[in-house]
Design brief:
Elements (H helix, E strand, L loop, with lengths): L1 H17 L9 H14 L41 E2 H24 L3 H18 L6 E5 L2 H5 L14 E4 L6 H18 L4 H20 L21 H15 L2 H8 L17 H10 L6
Antiparallel strand pairs: 1-2, 2-3
Helix pairs in contact: 1-2, 1-3, 3-4, 3-6, 4-6, 6-7, 6-8, 7-8, 8-9, 8-10
Pfam families: Glyco_hydro_9 (PF00759)
Catalytic activity: Endohydrolysis of (1->4)-beta-D-glucosidic linkages in cellulose, lichenin and cereal beta-D-glucans
Organism: Prunus mume (Japanese apricot)
Length: 292
């Protein structure tokens, strides 16, 4: 998802703002603002009154109607009009992490509220996509037909088919990453909106249980997603989700899961939307969790 790359710019901008004496000739505050504006440009659904990217309009207002579920909202993927749940959830996890770690820097540049709004636009959608404890909608639209037709989302005529995972059609990676996203976001909102943070955490816990108890990669259940965001496995998402849930709750059950992990990925050279072993282990090591 292109917004994952924008997250990299977001983190780089905040890091360089922290070390602005060295990089004083560059306006990284402006880069920070523009990186957050990108998320507003990718919004799907009914846009809010405070929408800053004025050339965007309402779109995807009937998403989920074929399944009788309200799935309006969330983010489009890169230049597409498809909503891919797997990379979207990872983006929300990472955006939440950056907001947790660099909240004071965001606040100093009057961007904290915009960062939280960007997170909430994603989490509101993910909560709706988690329509039942063991049901999660993971894609809206069809990548093939979308790529064959260049249209603004406001004018799109391509299919808006919904795809989901459930007990009979599992996807532990998709459910685990969504659990991580909601757990991380709950920390970001804890001091700003405790009620919303609690709601996110409830969904995160249910999704972790769903992922833990129903193994498998999600593209075996949502075949159309495999052409674009095929997952190489689900164990890293479970570690990642457990790490964030432990950080959000301090509950021993998640610590135990981390400590009993049978697969920690071995030597890794990548941290991405498909490979979170490094991220999960980094958090675990920070807490001095004995990973076997």
């Amino acid at each position: 998802m292109a917004s994952s790359k924008v997250f990299g710019l977001l983190c780089l901008s905040m890091f360089l703002l922290t070390h602005n004496s060295v990089f004083a000739s560059f306006d990284y505050g402006d880069a920070l603002t523009k990186s957050l504006l990108y998320y507003e440009a990718q919004r799907s659904g009914k846009l809010p009154p405070n929408q800053r990217v004025q050339w965007r309009g309402d779109s995807g207002l009937k998403d989920g109607s074929d399944a009788g579920v309200d799935l309006v909202g969330g983010y489009y993927d890169a230049g597409d009009n498809v909503k891919f749940g797997f990379p979207m959830a990872f983006t929300i996890t990472m955006l939440s992490w950056s907001t947790i770690e660099f909240g004071s820097k965001l606040d100093a540049k009057s961007e904290l509220s915009n960062a939280l709004d960007a997170i909430k636009w994603g989490t509101d959608y993910l909560v709706k996509a988690h329509a039942a404890p063991n049901v999660l909608y993971g894609e809206i639209g069809d990548g093939d037909s979308d790529h064959e037709c260049w249209q603004r989302p406001e004018d799109m005529t391509t299919p808006r088919t919904t795809f989901k995972i459930d007990e009979q059609h599992p996807g532990a990676d998709l459910a685990g990453e969504t659990a991580a996203a909601l757990a991380a976001a709950s920390i970001a909102f804890k001091d700003k909106d405790s009620k919303y943070a609690s709601e996110l955490l409830t969904h995160a816990k249910e999704l972790f249980e769903f992922a833990r108890d129903h193994s498998g990669v999600y593209q075996n259940s949502i075949n159309v997603a495999g052409k674009f965001y095929s997952s190489s496995g689900y164990e890293d998402e479970l570690l990642w989700a457990a790490a964030w849930l432990h950080r959000a709750t301090d509950e021993k059950t998640y610590l135990d899961y981390l400590g009993q992990a049978g697969n920690t990925g071995g030597a890794r050279t990548v941290f991405s939307w498909d490979d979170k072993f490094i991220g999960g282990l980094e958090i675990a090591i920070f807490w001095d969790v004995p990973i076997v």
